[in-house]
Amino acid sequence: MSRMVDRSGGTPVSAASPAAAFTTVTSYLSWDHTRLERALAGAREHLRAERMGAARQSFDEYARGLERHMRVEEDLVFPVFEELSGLSGGPVAVMRDEHRSIRMALAMMRDGLERDDTQSFGAGVRFLQSILPEHNAKEEHVLYPTTDRLLTPSARATLARRLEREE
Ligand SMILES: [Fe+2]
Ligand SMILES: [Fe+2]
User: Fold this and answer.
1) pLDDT tens, 23-51?
2) At what angle do helices 90-114 and 52-72 cross, to 10 degrees?
């Protein structure tokens, strides 16, 4: 394993490294959702305390982590779901659209932080929160488990490892 977890808490958020290897798409990507939620909470906490440098740094790590998460979904999970379920277009098109909105929300937040404009950052957070929780729930309850069910156990474990290792 090239990436082991850093128990000191110094693991960069963009480098997703769980303590143990995951064997399903659902367990790994759900774990990553939780990890990212915590990272965003950390950035918001710095902002509330007016630690702007730390807020910017935490936000950058969060945004990189979320970008990576969406990229591995788009490149490695959605195509497998579409191919194995025979459902191209429909559900995955909705998820890809939501990713576009999530990227817009991240851009609003980044822009607000760069200008020290906490109001704009807050508007970006509210936009993000209007999309992300439901998006994640649909993935965790439908898309990921369906993908796992359609794969053989060994293909499932291989994909989970690949997701985990992807930069
Ligand atoms: Fe997603
Ligand atoms: Fe996700």
Assistant:
1) 999 999 999 999 999 999 999 999 999 99
2) 160
